[in-house]
Design a protein that fits this description.
Keywords: Coiled coil, Transport. It is found in: Cell envelope. It holds the Pfam family BSH_RND. InterPro entries: MdtA-like_BSH, MdtA-like_C, RND_pump_MFP. The protein is of the alpha+beta class. It contains 4 helices and 23 strands. The strands form 7 sheets. It has a 6-stranded antiparallel β-barrel with strand order 3-12-15-14-13-16. The protein is elongated.
């Protein structure tokens, strides 16, 4: 009996279930589509303003005046100034090296004796000439006496002998003075090549010295920088001083030091090796008051320099880190990224002066980005106006649930 009723019970249950499903159909739970992911970026709002170009270069410190110290007479070195050593300072006129003067003192004494003898001979000839003129007149001769009678040739020869003796005496005094070798200017010793007891001649190198009043740096300039520099190339300036742009010399030998100088000369030709134009910068009085409590500049030391260039009135200057492949940047427009191709007018190690591609007021992206496309939504750091509002998100979710 039960086996007969079981199929009808199953059919009844299935029918009841179908009726319930028909009366209460399932509803899909649909929400708002997820908002696209935004990239956090840092931006800079560009503003055109005056910009002074600073051209960077490098070079090596050299003295403006450098000399090889040579004796003008021969002799044995009997004294050397204690400051005449590498790095020693000296003043103009200081005695640096002294040679044995005894031979030259003897020559001076002989020259003085020769001069005295020549003057005596001249005095005798003058007396003889005067006596001859008196005898000519006493004998009643008319007219002027002949030169031979008046001993004029002998008198001229005696005068010439005196002049020669005076010149020899002057030369002997000069040679004796030259045994004391003195500094031609205030300077510093670069190298000493001799020592006590050494016999030197007029061609022997005593050492290398240089003046400390001015140091120089020869600076190469890149061709792209020439348009932004005013260089001293005036010829026959009639009014005022020639223009000499300021330059800052930076030294990192022991600790960072900065020295101020000026570009005083522009070379007249392009260097054949580097194919660059060079200028000459000078630093005045580098060892005087400017060197107090500082590390003095050293000859041969490599330094960097920044030459003051022209001022661009309305310049758009951006950091180099915002430029990709040297040709384009990213800006934010209405909350999305936009790629902009740019043209760089001038560039140094950290900044670039833009000629075309950007405008005043553009929001330049400074954050380093990978491969992104224009139209990517972004969130600007620190800008509340760009953040998605919580109320708008809630309204979107409620709209999705009610649909």
């Amino acid at each position: 009996m039960i086996k007969r009723l079981l199929p009808f019970v199953v059919i009844g249950l299935l029918g009841a279930a179908s009726f319930l499903i028909y009366q209460n159909p399932p509803q899909a739970q649909r929400g708002a589509p997820p908002a696209p992911k935004r990239i956090n970026v840092e931006v800079q709002t560009l503003k055109a303003q005056p910009f002074r170009v600073q051209v960077r270069s490098y070079g090596r410190i050299e003295p403006r005046t450098q000399s090889t110290l040579l004796p003008q007479v021969s002799g044995e070195i009997v004294w050397i100034n204690p400051d005449f050593r590498a790095g020693g300072f000296f003043e103009a006129g200081d005695e640096l090296v002294r040679l044995d003067p005894r031979d030259y003192e003897t020559d001076l004494a002989q020259a003085e004796a020769t001069l005295m003898e020549a003057r005596q001979t001249l005095a005798e000839e003058q007396a003889r000439s005067a006596q001859a003129a008196a005898d000519w007149a006493r004998l009643g001769n008319s007219g002027e006496a002949p030169p031979l009678v008046l001993r004029k040739p002998q008198l001229s020869a005696a005068r010439a002998t005196v002049a020669s003796a005076e010149a020899a005496l002057k030369q002997a005094r000069l040679n004796l003075e030259r045994t004391r070798i003195r500094a031609p200017y205030a300077g510093r010793v670069l190298e000493k090549s001799v020592d006590l007891g050494q016999v030197v001649s007029s061609g022997t190198t005593l050492g290398q010295i240089y003046a400390v009043d001015v140091l120089e740096v020869r600076l190469p300039l890149q061709n792209r920088d020439l348009a932004y520099l005013r260089l001293p190339e005036e010829y026959r300036v009639e009014y005022g001083e020639p223009f000499q742009p300021p330059v800052s010399i930076h030294s990192d030998l022991i600790r960072p030091e900065t020295w101020q100088g000026r570009v005083v000369q522009t070379e007249g030709a392009i260097d054949e090796d580097s194919r660059q134009l060079h200028v000459l910068a000078q630093i005045e009085d580098p060892y005087g008051e400017k060197a107090v409590d500082r590390i003095p500049l050293k000859v041969g030391q490599y330094v960097t320099a920044r030459i003051q260039g022209v001022e661009v009135d309305a310049a758009l200057v951006i950091p180099n880190r915002a430029i990709y492949q040297g040709t384009y940047v990213y800006v934010v427009e209405e909350g999305v990224l936009q790629r902009r191709n740019i043209e760089v007018a001038w560039q140094d190690d950290s900044h670039a002066l833009i000629a075309q591609g950007l405008e005043d007021g553009d929001r330049l992206v400074l954050t380093s980005l990978g491969q992104v496309v224009s139209g990517t939504p972004v969130r600007i750091q620190g800008d509340a106006a760009e953040q998605p509002k919580a109320s708008e998100t809630a309204q979107a979710e409620m709209a999705g649930e009610g649909s």
